[in-house]
């Protein structure tokens, strides 16, 4: 096939996990269960953040945005994957593939930026506690959240436009959804340094935010070590540790997928790494943030008691 611009009606074939047919039934059940749990857990976080006044703080405002992102992020790929695993239809239209690529990149880029915002929130909470509510004013919180969304969708528009100009050889995508590295592997050639431009964009969206987060946590660690109280130090580490764990999980898989040279990118390994950050990470985020969080657990029990009493 000559390229996106000449192949509108042909569409693509998603190979998925057809190389391992013995795994498909297991993967279907596993992914369906995790997808349902992801929908339930992230929806619960969003609902609690709105229902309980104790959670009307900048931290939970950004956490509800992260939960909504995870809901959309996993939904952009999982339904297509479940259909693929049942073997009903392994094809995807040109328009569907471009839409999936654009939405997936937009949501992933937005999460990269939102995690930076959440790191800034934790930096202010630990390093400037007396000025926290003054600095993290609702107006600033909304501005930072909106900027993350807008930045993510603008980045996706740029990268998707670059992909659409590349001539592609073949219709088979060795993946379970329309992901960027698979398109680069399918490219016949790279006129005008398209791959280099896209790599630069990914460095700005993935590597730069990761560096900013690590820098903020270096300052947080210095501030925490100055706290004389053991209880205060433990509380500060507990507050920031959950966010840092989410950062490592998300950025670790993103750096592996998007920042390694395309000529050494393994499509088979890439599929299983993609399973991790599209299926596992979205359900781990609410668990990591809530398992040791007394405020969230208290809000959940309050809602459950209210429902039981009204019943």
Please provide a written account of the structure.
The protein has 311 residues and is an all-alpha fold. Helix content is 74%, strand content 2%. The protein has a three-stranded mixed beta sheet. Helix 1 (21-51) runs parallel beside helix 10 and helix 1 (21-51) crosses helix 11. The longest helix has 34 residues, at 94-127. It is globular, with a radius of gyration of 21 Å. The chain starts with 11 loop residues before the first strand and ends with a helix. Mean pLDDT is 83; it is low at 1-8.
What's the number of extended β-strand segments? Answer: 3
The secondary-structure element order is EHHHEHHHEHHHHH
Individual helix count = 11
Uncertain segments: 1-8
Radius of gyration using CA atoms only? 21 Å
- Distance from first to last alpha carbon: 61 Å
Outline of the structure:
The protein has 311 residues and is mainly α. It is 74% helix and 2% strand.
Question: What key phrases describe this protein's structure?
Answer:
single chain; 311 residues; mainly alpha; three-stranded mixed β-sheet; 11 helices; 74% helix; globular; disordered N terminus
Write the layout of secondary structure elements.
Blueprint: E1 12-14, H1 21-51, H2 58-75, H3 78-85, E2 91-92, H4 94-127, H5 132-135, H6 138-164, E3 172-173, H7 180-186, H8 194-225, H9 230-258, H10 267-290, H11 294-310
Parallel strand pairs: 1-3
Antiparallel strand pairs: 1-2
Helix pairs in contact: 1-2, 1-3, 1-10, 1-11, 2-4, 2-10, 4-6, 4-8, 4-9, 6-8, 8-9, 9-10
């Amino acid at each position: 096939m000559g390229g996106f611009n000449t192949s509108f009606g042909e569409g693509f074939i998603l190979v998925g996990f057809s190389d391992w047919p013995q795994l498909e039934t297991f993967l279907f059940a596993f992914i369906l269960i995790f997808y349902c749990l992801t929908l339930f857990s992230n929806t619960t976080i969003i609902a609690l953040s709105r229902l309980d006044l104790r959670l009307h703080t900048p931290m939970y405002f950004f956490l509800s945005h992260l939960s909504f992102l995870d809901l959309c992020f996993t939904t952009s790929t999982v339904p297509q994957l479940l259909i693929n695993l049942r073997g009903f239809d392994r094809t995807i239209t040109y328009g569907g593939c471009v839409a999936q690529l654009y939405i997936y990149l937009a949501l992933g880029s937005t999460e990269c930026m939102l995690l930076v915002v959440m790191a800034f929130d934790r930096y202010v909470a630990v390093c400037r506690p007396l000025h926290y509510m003054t600095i993290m004013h609702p107006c600033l919180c909304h501005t930072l959240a909106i900027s993350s969304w807008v930045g993510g969708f603008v980045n996706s528009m740029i990268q998707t436009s670059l992909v659409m100009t590349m001539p592609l050889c073949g219709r088979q995508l060795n993946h379970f959804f329309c992901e960027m590295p698979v398109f680069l592997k399918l490219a016949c050639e790279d006129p005008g340094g398209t791959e280099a431009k896209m790599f630069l964009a990914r460095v700005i969206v993935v590597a730069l935010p990761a560096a900013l987060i690590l820098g903020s946590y270096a300052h947080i660690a210095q501030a925490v070590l100055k706290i004389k109280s053991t209880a205060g130090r433990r509380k500060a580490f507990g507050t920031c540790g959950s966010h840092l764990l989410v950062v490592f999980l998300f950025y670790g898989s993103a750096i592996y997928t998007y920042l390694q040279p395309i000529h050494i990118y393994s499509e088979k390994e890439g599929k299983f790494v993609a399973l991790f950050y599209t299926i596992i990470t979205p359900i781990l985020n609410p668990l990591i943030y809530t398992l040791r969080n007394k405020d969230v657990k208290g809000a959940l029990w309050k809602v459950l008691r209210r429902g039981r009493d009204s019943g």
